[in-house]
ABC transporter ATP-binding protein (Pseudoduganella albidiflava), 270 residues
Amino acid sequence: MDLEKNDAHIVVAGVSKVFATGGGREVVALQDIGLAIPRGQFVCLLGPSGCGKSTLLNAVAGFALPSTGTITADGQPVTAPGPERGMVFQEYALFPWMTVEDNIAFGLEIKGQPKAAIRATVDKLLAMLSLADFRQRYPKDLSGGMRQRVAIARVLALDSPIMLMDEPFGALDALTRRNLQDELLRIWSELKKTIIFVTHSIEEAIYLADRIVVMTYRPGTIKRDILVDLPRLRDPAGADFNALKRELGQLVMEEQQRHHHDELRLAAVD
Ligand SMILES: Nc1ncnc2c1ncn2[C@@H]1O[C@H](COP(=O)(O)OP(=O)(O)OP(=O)(O)O)[C@@H](O)[C@H]1O
């Protein structure tokens, strides 16, 4: 384990996060989370609403630091957002007044890169994400799937070795979602990123991940940490896929029920 930790790209150690919710009440969103993520691993955080997936991702991103515990990326403590950790949100965080190419170029311009280098990177990413015909469009004139391609290209432009993705495909229809999952797998295997990907969807987690971390509902802890060794591209209709889907379904259902009971209890108190 120590060897694994020394080699890990991201290390989360003893992380807890407590939110004060007013009236002296507290929510323990995360409790004693420990994870060592090797370079290049594709990790999915899976669990029902409220189990702390986004809280954990935001802590790794440096947006909201843990109450206790430490997170390191490449051996460096995470104390703020940084260029080595790119984030893709569910809601496409694009600038509506900028074209596709300007959205992708934005981070590079901030970094002060020369114009020719920016142009070369943008062209490469437009081709990689099949956006070349859309470079002059504005976000409002794009479908949800296309917008999310631009959001991914924007993070890739910064060349972050770590990609943090918070339900990035949650708002897309099934077909577009599968297309983007396939694109992401292709990009991941080509660029060798380390990815932490939050999802509610068991099928999405099995389709994408090397490793699935199932979380418990309040306090958010690690319920199960599963390595997925099914060959890629995975077949959602396959027997092994479905056996794992059933196993994970059971685990997630238990936590969903705890969520449900908690809501009933809180409603009774109010
Ligand atoms: N800023 C905050 N203040 C108070 N409580 C919070 C805050 N952010 C999150 N929480 C609580 O912490 C718990 C974990 O929330 P979090 O959003 O991380 O869960 P999640 O698993 O990502 O859920 P979802 O899938 O719905 O986004 C929830 O009970 C939530 O209500």
Q: What stands out?
A: Residues 90 and 130 are 20 Å apart (CA to CA). Residues 91-159 form one domain. The longest strand covers residues 8-22.
